[in-house]
Amino acid sequence: MVTLAEVARHAGVSASTVSYVLSGKRTISSGTRQRVEQSIRELGYHPNAGARALASSRSNIIALMMPLRTDMYVPVMMEIAVAVATTAREHQHDVLLLTGQEGPEAVRRVVGSGLADAMILMDVELEDDRLPLVREARRPAALIGLPADPRGLACVDLDFAATGRLCVEHLAGHGHRDIAVVGEAPAVYERHTGFAERTLDGIREKSAELGVRVLHRPCEGSYESVAGTLARIFDERPGTTGLVVQNESAIEPLLSLLRQQGRAVPEDISVVAICPDQVAGQTSVALTSVAIPAQEMGRRAVEMVMTRAGLGGAPAMTGTEQVELLPPRLTVRASTGPAPAAAGPLPG
Amino acid sequence: MVTLAEVARHAGVSASTVSYVLSGKRTISSGTRQRVEQSIRELGYHPNAGARALASSRSNIIALMMPLRTDMYVPVMMEIAVAVATTAREHQHDVLLLTGQEGPEAVRRVVGSGLADAMILMDVELEDDRLPLVREARRPAALIGLPADPRGLACVDLDFAATGRLCVEHLAGHGHRDIAVVGEAPAVYERHTGFAERTLDGIREKSAELGVRVLHRPCEGSYESVAGTLARIFDERPGTTGLVVQNESAIEPLLSLLRQQGRAVPEDISVVAICPDQVAGQTSVALTSVAIPAQEMGRRAVEMVMTRAGLGGAPAMTGTEQVELLPPRLTVRASTGPAPAAAGPLPG
DNA sequence: GTGAAAGCGCTAACAG
DNA sequence: CTGTTAGCGCTTTCAC
To answer: Which residues form the HTH lacI-type domain (chains A, B) (predicted)?
Structure first.
């Protein structure tokens, strides 16, 4: 294994000079720099991570904690994870993957051992077990999701309330007066993740404002569940002409069922989905949708912890409250259109 | 920060004793052990990861390298990643998440810096860029997937050839004589990932053996693409009564299209899918399927690197070739049945 | 069964 | 602009 000392000897300089060439923490004459860089290349030197962490008490590692449950929409989580890893590399950091498996203890372990300099928590719940530990850890942390009490924490999330309002605005703008929400699975509401409720709040608020009637039904992702939910919706509100779908796995079954029932999209019924753009484009009818900005959430979370660690150029700010709600963007595709003139029972 | 030295003082022993209590590498009288453990708990001591890595030249970290492309089926990748992380913890290791972003260089960086003790590569291609570096790294590594030349490497994968044979056997057993394969996207074949070809090989072999006719068509996941593929299949082979689907994202559109065309599953046409069990159970018609054993692949990969690192109880064996193909399991659900008596054109 | 002490490879004062 | 040096906290001989 090539060490810094060997590089120093090879380049005819002292160890500290090599170290400073690497870190850029003091000015080096371009002559020495060249020779050192040359030696580094020739010897194939890589600084030892452990030694560096020990001496500098910074590991250059960010811990990313995934939720225990897997009922979250997986592609979004994956996209966040990849964005976190990519952005972290841009800041000379690596990412340690923690699953919820170990529970809140993982926070203590990773922080206590100095394994990670900072952490990012995904799928944060309103009352999250991990938050007390995160607060007392006194390490930069960023949450993806919005807890009930974000005091002293950094959080990024999609502005779900605005998302809800946007969906209603779009449908109302097309003359829909009676809409239904195909919501998340009941378990999601019970777990109090917050985002589902916030979406509903936004939907209800804007509906009230615009005089639109709303019916909300939670819905699992299975075909049967969607069938049942749809049946109950049309049973209770036969005049429904607009649907907002928040459960991504319900989308395909939903479209399939509507087609089977002879309800044309968007002629008879308009559908707005809250889902990744990639999904919205692949369905049988391209979906008007509000995207979940997974990449941006991951990127911002990393930038937040870097800033809070004092590595962003600005001074450190661990402990400051910082809530960032990303504005929703609605993309109009083929699944929404004007409300049918007479919103009566099934056509034909 | 609590250090080992402080624990030692608190317990009235020497630093090395504390270290040995922690590692179990020498026998400690139960008296001292108790006192040390007590002190550790009281002081909330966590060994410093950097110091430990430096002194022992083992980081207790496994690098997991994900593919750059995102056209792999995401839920499977995620499941593998979670299984890797979970199993790693059972072996006192953490997982570092690397994306393909950096390319093969990432291997060099992580290994050179001693950041990771071992690595696991996902989505390995037949001629994978990373393999030369992995070979010269002389660190334990495990591949998920099977390269053209596995010499000196450890690999786990589903036995896709056997999977193909199994699908054909099942359909042939139900009297199907004319089957079609809805394959992966053309890009997957072009990239030479191997698994798609191996599945086909198995399908063709068993078909030849059993006198079944096979038509293969690559297929993207989009609705249009599936529609086109299906049209071409039934155009060319109207008598097709069995379908093997390998592209998971094609499944929902496929079922939806068959229904629209008035082809009942399984009465008119049988469908076997190669996909996670969870997907197979959620579709409108529960799918007879061969599962991708994602969890087991992740788990085995970790166990392989642990063994090769000499941490599995047995002696180390880096450099030994070790190819492990997991046997496929076919689960019969509702999407397959006897071939219709007269396999003619569309019913009705 | 336990201690003492020599590093592991790097960083960051301190000294010029 | 560069060199010297004292640790960082732990593991692991060696010694008893």
So the answer is: 2-56
